[in-house]
TrEMBL record:
The active site is at E353 (proton donor), H384, K512. It catalyses: alpha-D-glucose 6-phosphate = beta-D-fructose 6-phosphate. The keyword Amino-acid biosynthesis does not apply. Keywords: Cytoplasm, Gluconeogenesis, Glycolysis, Isomerase. Pathway: Carbohydrate biosynthesis; gluconeogenesis; Carbohydrate degradation; glycolysis; D-glyceraldehyde 3-phosphate and glycerone phosphate from D-glucose: step 2/4. This is Glucose-6-phosphate isomerase. Gene3D superfamilies: 1.10.1390.10, Glucose-6-phosphate isomerase like protein, domain 1 (3.40.50.10490). Its EC number is 5.3.1.9. GO terms for molecular function: glucose-6-phosphate isomerase activity. Belongs to the GPI family.
């Protein structure tokens, strides 16, 4: 493929950005009464308003042409068809098969994977029902009250994010905990609150070699055995989730209690597999199935909707528009939902581990920007922290606002205030404050003359800052499934257009390698190997301070 930046459409986009550079969104709304209808769409219970973007019809059609020119539709179909699109690891990418509730076969090298997928789901269902009904007993005969997932990265972020998001569906009988960090404080502080007799550990690791997870799992096992004093207790308090069941068995987990998944499921795309077991335990298998259904609905939308009405495609193209043509380095995820507080962290892994790359699929360097820095916090908290920068800094930071229209189980007074704030923020970012309005405000506050001039620039809001708003009636399991799949496919589309492999993560390896060399050097008296001056100095410092 010719270089992206040499293509005509890329150059047309760059030229069009120049034309739009001085046009305001407010003016575009004034010129077109149908803009909100034209630049919004609904799919799978999600309503996307993308009208508050620095984009017009021509810009959108050029972006759609970019998608077509890079063969996005064929790339998408190749993913769904189980082709080896993870070219560096020679793997298919089939998280969509995990939620394929259609009954249609999905083949990897001619082999239909759906019977195995359904088999694991069925085993998960039986296990969940046993634990949730109290039929599954701990070693001393008591029912399980606490479920602790031990995993990190993709074996943690999805389950923790979804479990928190679906708090309204959480069984009152069970509490969920997540231990991920190797920092001993994480396991210590959680274990201190738990009763070993009523605690179930789910050790989740695709590779079952991850240092943090295995160390935390050993610590949890020691804690359990210190209380229950019988090696056989492990069988009723530990289950595992892994694509390497033999390694889980080696760790001492009863093979009957190991739930498998496959190498064609990337870690950050794995919450739909048995990695979702802590979700299913928390909210029940029916709700987990509804989550899968919601994701499948989004898969179908992505697979079949024309590009111009395709929500993941449009979100991807908007991201590319700002990243490559406006130089936006970062992208903010702003859920107006406390229960979605881990969504930004989840999307950090999904997006940054997928698209934080600088070489193309064939190894040539990318001479264009790829994945942005993803960050965010729930509103309204973020408003009182970093929104200053969103409104008045020199940075252009596209944002996604997310909100449920209904209060559901929450206080309606709180919810109306929440809604007022999320709508106000996107309005404020776009419209800013006109000079006339600011003058009038200062005037009516009695601030005049030199004092008015002194404050004017500080209090001015230039506006014209873009955002998307995603609205859904309620954050049900189905809507959440669709929402997550929407972002997965957005990331896929961007990676495809940037011609990068979104499904490997070699960038995390070097630090792991060096940590394994440094670990033995930390032992008292152990020689320190050859490092740069800073690393030598830090090693010597921590060794002397820890004596
Ligand atoms: O599930 P595991 O094999 O334990 O891997 C956990 C995580 O660690 C790795 O370093 C990768 O960066 C992640 O993509 C992965 O999700």
């Amino acid at each position: 493929m010719a270089n992206l930046t040499d293509s005509t459409v890329w150059q047309q986009l760059a030229a069009h950005q120049q034309e739009l550079a001085t046009r305001t969104m407010t003016a575009m709304f004034a010129e077109d009464a149908t803009r909100f209808d034209r630049f919004s769409l609904q799919a799978c219970g999600l309503f996307l308003d993308y009208s508050k973007n620095r984009l017009d019809e021509r810009g959108l059609s050029l972006l759609l042409e970019l998608a077509r020119r890079t063969g996005l539709e064929a790339g998408r179909d190749a993913m769904f068809a189980g082709e080896e699109i993870n070219c560096t690891e020679k793997r298919a990418v089939l998280h969509t098969a995990l939620r394929n509730v259609s009954g249609n076969p999905v083949r990897v090298n001619g082999h239909d994977v759906m019977p195995e997928v359904r088999d694991v789901l069925a085993r998960m269902g039986v296990f969940c029902n046993a634990v949730r009904s109290g039929e599954w007993r701990g070693h001393t005969g008591k029912a399980i009250r606490s479920v602790v997932n031990i995993g990190i990265g993709g074996s943690d972020l999805g389950p923790v994010m979804v479990t928190r998001a679906l708090q309204a569906y959480q069984s009152p009988e069970l509490s969920s905990y997540f231990i991920s960090n190797i920092d001993g404080a994480h396991s210590k502080d959680i274990l201190a609150t738990l009763d070993p007799e009523t605690t179930l550990f789910v050790v989740a690791s695709k590779t079952f070699t991850t240092q943090e997870t295995l160390t935390n799992a050993r610590t949890a096992r020691r804690w359990l055995l210190a209380a229950l004093k019988d090696q056989s207790a492990v069988a009723s308090h530990f289950v595992a989730v892994s694509s390497k069941p033999e390694l889980a068995a080696e760790f001492g987990i009863d093979p009957q209690n190991v739930f498998g998944f496959w190498d064609w499921v990337g870690g950050r795309y794995s919450l739909w597999s048995a990695v979702g077991l802590p979700i299913a335990l928390a909210v029940g298998m029916d709700n987990f199935t509804a989550l899968l259904q919601g994701a499948h609905d989004m898969d179908e939308h992505f697979r079949t909707a024309p590009l111009e009405e395709n929500m993941p495609v449009l979100m991807a193209l908007l991201g590319i528009w700002y990243r490559n043509f406006f130089g936006a380095n970062s992208y903010a995820i702003l859920p107006y939902s406390q229960r979605l507080d881990r969504l930004p962290a989840f999307l950090q892994q999904l997006d940054m581990e997928s698209n934080g790359k600088s070489v193309q699929r064939d190894g040539r360097p990318c001479d264009y920007a790829t994945g942005p820095i993803i960050w965010g916090e729930p509103g309204t908290n973020g408003q009182h922290a970093f929104y200053q920068l969103l409104h008045q800094s020199q940075e252009l930071i596209p944002c996604d606002f997310l909100v449920a229209a209904r209060a559901d189980d929450l206080d309606p007074e709180h919810h109306n205030i929440l809604l007022a704030n999320v709508i106000a923020q996107s309005e404020a970012l776009m419209t800013g404050k006109s000079d006339e309005q600011l003058r009038a405000e200062l005037q009516s506050a009695g601030i005049e003359g030199a004092e008015q001039e002194r404050l004017f620039a500080h209090k001015s809001f230039p506006g014209n800052r873009p955002s998307n708003t995603l609205v859904y009636a309620s954050l049900t399991p189905g809507v959440l499934g669709s929402l997550i799949a929407l972002y997965e496919h957005k990331v896929f589309c961007q990676g495809h257009i940037w011609n990068i492999n979104s499904f490997d993560q070699w960038g995390v390896e070097l630090g792991k390698q060096l940590a394994s060399l440094i670990l033995p050097e930390l032992a008292p008296g152990a020689p320190v190997g050859c490092h740069d001056g800073s690393t030598q100095g830090l090693l010597a410092l921590v060794k002397s301070l820890s004596k």
